[in-house]
């Protein structure tokens, strides 16, 4: 009464093992029949619930090989596909000369009836033709040149590469320089070639610069002259040797590879030369130099000031904050190809003479005189100039030779003390080493009230006698800067056309004391002193009274 009620199993649960074994056996038979080639295929179709009918289908007797919608032949089995594709690809590589990238692979369509015509060689050839058609672009053998990190260009031959590099270099050196371009195997990769520049008969070649480069050489000589030539001597700085080209190289890495490219990418020699020599704007760092301001930096680099501000945020309005050595980003035109030349330039420059001083007790203090003018020496300098695209980047002195030793200049310095300030009643010439360029009296339709004593600008002018300064400064457009001294008793002297005056009104001076410097101010045709001697305001010929 209190026991567990009995559980009644269903038919499927009771005979589940037998049912599963029967269904598994049926599916195994159907799978084997359906997927074994050459056997009759049994097609299983549902008829009614819990019943199936197996139909017989024609066997697969071969396969059509189809690519890009085109039938190219028949094969007996799927295993033949890979073999035929490999053979066709080998023929394609032989014909093209390179390994193409193929995307489409042939498809196989089963054949159930009919007669098969099998010709593997014909299928291979047909497949190769369709592979070529599927490429779209057939590449052509060419030589690709890479300059720097990212610029590449393709030409049809080695000779084209050589011609382009030779023509490009002629932008910076004269065509009279005999050059050859040689392509050598790269030491690290034999598939890569590196160009080398060879000069024919380098020992016989002088520097043959292009116009722009020659102007640069002239600037160097002018710079040396401005630094070295003494104002008092005409020492000529000249080139002993017009210069010798030591080497020509490429300033960037250049690699050349023989490869296959799209024919549309191959350019001719003229186009390639233009592309690698065309100036493109590139960012560079400019270091601030003495005297620079933002506007001059922009102008020096052919930029607008507004563009300089854009490239250097934060500097606008801070012109006074830039310092020597600061880095400023600028845009400069740079060609893809950079040619480095080294030129050995030989020139002469003066060796500055020194000055020796001796005491002269017979001359008043300040009355210095040249005893021996001496002479500068001559130094021969050999310089190695390194340039990139005609612009000098380095100048190195590699040798010097003294051709003529300098001879020191000797100056006698007056040590005799000045007499007591005031007039002595006798007068001396206000300068030494002069020549009389215009005497006292009538000239050019007028009357000249003094005597002109010509000599170099900057020489000292001395008081002809002691007295008091009654005028010092700019007198008029005729006199220019002038000094006038009152020697008492109605005697005055004037010293005109001075470059500067060294005394002031009211100052007492002694005979021989420096009062001004020789110049050419006012109405003057050259550096000289216009000297007047007046008695009670009337000018007289100074030569009658000077010692």
- What is the average per-residue confidence, as pLDDT, rounded to a whole number? 79
**What's the total count of β strands?**
32
Query: What's the CATH architecture name of the domain at 421-544?
Result: Distorted Sandwich
Quaternary organization: single chain
CATH superfamily of the domain at 421-544: Glucose Permease (Domain IIA)
Please identify the top-level CATH class of the domain at 421-544. Mainly Beta
The helicity comes to: 10-25%
- The structural class is alpha+beta
Strand fraction equals 35-45%
What's the gyration radius in Å?
Answer: 51 Å
Counting DSSP H or I runs of 4 or more residues, the number of helices is 9
CATH topology name of the domain at 421-544: Glucose Permease (Domain IIA)
Q: For the report, how would you describe the main beta sheet?
A: 8 strands, antiparallel
How does the overall form come out from the CA principal axes? rod-shaped
**Span between N and C termini?**
172 Å
**Uncertain runs:** 1-13, 28-44, 204-216, 224-240
């Amino acid at each position: 009464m209190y026991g567990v009620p009995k559980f009644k199993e269903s038919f499927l649960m009771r005979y589940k093992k037998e049912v599963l074994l029967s269904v598994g056996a049926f599916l195994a038979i159907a799978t084997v029949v359906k997927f074994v080639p050459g056997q009759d295929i049994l097609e299983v179709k549902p008829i009614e619930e819990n019943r199936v009918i197996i139909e017989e289908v024609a066997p697969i007797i071969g396969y059509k090989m189809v690519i890009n919608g085109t039938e190219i032949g028949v094969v007996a089995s799927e295993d033949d596909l890979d073999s035929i594709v490999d053979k066709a690809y080998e023929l394609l590589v032989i014909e093209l000369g390179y390994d193409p990238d193929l995307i489409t692979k042939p498809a196989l369509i089963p054949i159930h009836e009919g007669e098969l015509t099998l010709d593997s060689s014909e299928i291979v050839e047909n497949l190769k033709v369709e592979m070529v058609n599927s490429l779209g672009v057939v590449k052509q053998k060419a030589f690709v040149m890479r300059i720097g990190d990212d610029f590449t260009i393709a030409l049809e031959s080695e000779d084209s590469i050589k011609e382009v590099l030779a023509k490009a270099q002629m932008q910076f050196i004269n065509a009279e320089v005999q050059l050859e371009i040689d392509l050598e195997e790269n030491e690290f990769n034999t598939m890569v070639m590196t160009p080398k520049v060879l000069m024919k008969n380098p020992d016989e070649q002088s520097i043959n610069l292009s116009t722009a480069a020659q102007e640069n050489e002239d600037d160097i000589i002018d710079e040396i002259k401005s630094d070295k030539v003494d104002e008092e001597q005409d020492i000529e700085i000249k080139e002993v040797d017009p210069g010798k080209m030591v080497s020509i190289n490429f300033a960037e890495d250049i690699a050349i590879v023989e490869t296959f490219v799209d024919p549309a990418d191959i350019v001719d020699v003229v186009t390639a030369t233009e592309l690698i020599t065309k100036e493109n704007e590139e960012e560079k760092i400019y270091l601030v130099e003495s005297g620079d301001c933002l506007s001059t930096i922009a102008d020096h680099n052919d930029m607008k000031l507004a563009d300089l501000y854009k490239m250097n945020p934060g500097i606008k309005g801070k012109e006074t904050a830039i310092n020597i050595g600061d880095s400023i980003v600028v845009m400069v035109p740079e060609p893809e190809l950079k040619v480095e030349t080294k030129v050995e330039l030989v020139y002469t420059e003066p060796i500055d003479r020194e000055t020796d001083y001796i005491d002269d007790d017979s001359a008043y203090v300040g009355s210095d005189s040249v005893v021996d003018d001496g002479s500068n020496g001559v130094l021969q300098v050999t310089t190695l100039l390194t340039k990139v695209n005609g612009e000098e980047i380095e100048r190195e002195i590699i040798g010097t030779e003294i051709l003529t030793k300098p001879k020191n200049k000797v100056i006698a310095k007056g040590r005799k003390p000045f007499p007591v300030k005031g007039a002595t009643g006798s007068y001396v010439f206000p300068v030494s080493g002069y020549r009389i360029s215009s005497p006292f009296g009538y000239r050019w339709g007028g009357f000249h009230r003094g005597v002109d004593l010509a000599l170099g600008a900057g020489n000292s002018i001395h008081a002809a006698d002691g007295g008091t300064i009654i005028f010092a400064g700019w007198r008029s457009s005729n006199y220019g800067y002038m000094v006038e001294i009152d020697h008492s008793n109605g005697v005055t002297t004037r010293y005109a056309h001075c470059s500067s005056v060294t005394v002031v009104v009211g100052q007492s001076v002694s005979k021989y004391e420096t009062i001004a410097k020789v110049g050419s101010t006012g109405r003057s045709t050259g550096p000289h002193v216009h000297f007047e001697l007046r008695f009670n305001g009337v000018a007289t010929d100074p030569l009658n009274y000077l010692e």
